[in-house]
Amino acid sequence: MCFINGREPITVSKFYQGVLYKMYKKEDKKNGLNWQKIALSGKVLWTVISFSMNYGIVERGTVETNFEKIYSFLPDISVFFNSIDAQPLTTLFLLWFLVKYYKISDAGIEYGKKRFTVEMLTLIASISLFTGTAIYKYESLDILFLGGIQCVKSFIIVGGYYLFFQKLFTIMTNEYDKLMNNRKTCFVIRFFEKKYVGLFVFIILLVLWGGTLFVYYPAMFMGDTEDILYMAFNYPTGLTNSVLLPREGVYLTNHHPILYTGFIRIIMDIVRKFGGGDIYSVFICAIVQCVVSAGILSYSCIYCARELKKPCVATFALIFWVICPWVSKYTIMISKDTLFAGFILLFGVNLHGLLKSANNSLKKIKYSFGVLLSALMVLLLRKNGLYIVEFTFVFLLFLYRKYWKRWFVYIVLTALIQFGFSNIILPAAGIADGSVREALSIPFQQTARYIQKHGDEVTEQEREVVNAVLKYDILAKIYLSDVSDPVKGTFRIDADNKDLINYFKVWFAMFWKHPGTYVAATISNYYGYFYPIVNDVQKLYRTSVGSMHNAGRDGYFEFSNVYDEIHVWFRDLCSLYDMVWMKIPVINILMTSAFYVWVVLIGWLMKLGRGDRCGFAFMLVFGLTTLTALAGPCNAIDYERYIYPLILGFPIILGVLFYEE
Q1: Is position 131 within any domain?
Q2: Distance CA 108, CA 110 (A)
Q3: What are the pLDDT digits (tens) for 188-218?
Q4: Which of 482, 502, 529 marks a domain boundary?
Q5: Least confident interval from 54-68, 128-142, 479-493, 496-510
Q6: Which of 431, 559, 592, 612 could form a disulfide linkage to 532, CB 3.0–4.6 angstroms apart?
Q7: pTM here?
Q8: Same domain, 409 and 311
Q9: Does residue 211 lie in a domain region?
């Protein structure tokens, strides 16, 4: 605190804000300068240049013809300016927009949780746009730092992005605070006050998804569907060779969760007993998935309308779940991701309900049961579900220390269930628990890129250590920057713990030699989670056709879509509909994986900034889901299934974001 002229104390930060305000406002009478306008002009010009800058290298020879003294510093400066690719009309628009943008008044944010939120979002957004553009266009980060000119360009680009996003997130944070402080409720929609509205929402979803199921009858397949079907009937698959089988003749593994595999087997056996074939069997599986998904979404929709008091958001949720191409297609897809996403949402909703109903005994019992049931399903439907559930409860142990006994019981209970399932039930049934390689995508990709870029520096001893875990000789050839499956496929199933320990010693030593290579490998594999690129929604059907063919190639099954004129015409119509979502500006942002990750990230940090523990815990569920996806094998630029829980939960995430008790 400081005192001025004996008046009431003011904070140091407010004192300096006042000084800065007067400094910028004060016009120098001697030379007529207005420092506020100069600062504004500088921000605008810097941002325009950063958005107009070409990342590529301009060869010095292309500009030397314009100079007589080619060995002076002037051609180097010319190289820099040749990197600015500013189209006149675009530049005029940017200048007009940015002047208006930077002149928007905002209260500023003092240091604290909210300033931390703004700076974190700004930093992540700036780096994501900077590195994402470089990798997407040039497939490398090296181009950003090759020489002094490139380093200067990189500094200017990142600085311009930082100025732009800092203003954006400051405005967003202030507007969010105003909205939350006004305590205005969503406009009333009487529809959600009716007694049987949940059943009505359930029926609407089933009927409209039924149209998609009719068009793509009997169901949609994805790349893993073939393995799921083969495992359901204990047929050998490519995954059989990825683990040491504990019992001869048992080809099942928990790579694809046994719970989902068993679900497929039970449905198909029942249908076959009644004389149905393979096509009708998977059709019934798709219907069951639709029923379960519709039940979860209708429950979440009503929670949003009644408990969060956001009927307008609930209405949007219903519309979104019906018209979004991803939701309707994934709902009828024979994939563990469909049910997993639904139970992630159910887990988050019940957890939020439990935390906000601390003084209501009946609701506490209801939501406690819901949390445990959904947590159990999340555990059993994906192996990474364990980390989502356990880390959520661990965070709650510290966030809600008053109820530490409850969270401790949940942690122990879920851990015991997972341990008993993986270490007692599966071994007793002779089922392998899956390969350790699935958790090592990041280090394996880093090793493969290192060998590809710096193979001549690898010693014979390092080569032998790596070769004991991965097939060294082919790593450089098969390495793909955006997917780790080829590299993981070289994992030696006889590699033991000693081999892995030795591998990580070498991995760590290589890191210190070329840390940039490791960073580039990781960013290249996952930048699509933060850098918005429109995904190809139409590929889902193309993949489905190929997967149906593959599932029947050994004669075990027979699957096919219907190819009469009506079904073909409707599928073409759906393809056109998908194209509309992919191409229309603003709408197509919903077809990027990064959009949903950013919604969760912004929501997470906004709730942290406002100290809303309940909302923070809800966002934490989806944040941890994102983190587990970042340890997965694929980039999100054209592979959205790992963040499908975020897509499905998007409307409810918005509801929680704008709710506060």
Answers
A1: yes
A2: 7
A3: 567 777 888 899 999 999 999 999 999 999 9
A4: 529
A5: 54-68
A6: 592
A7: 0.89
A8: yes
A9: yes
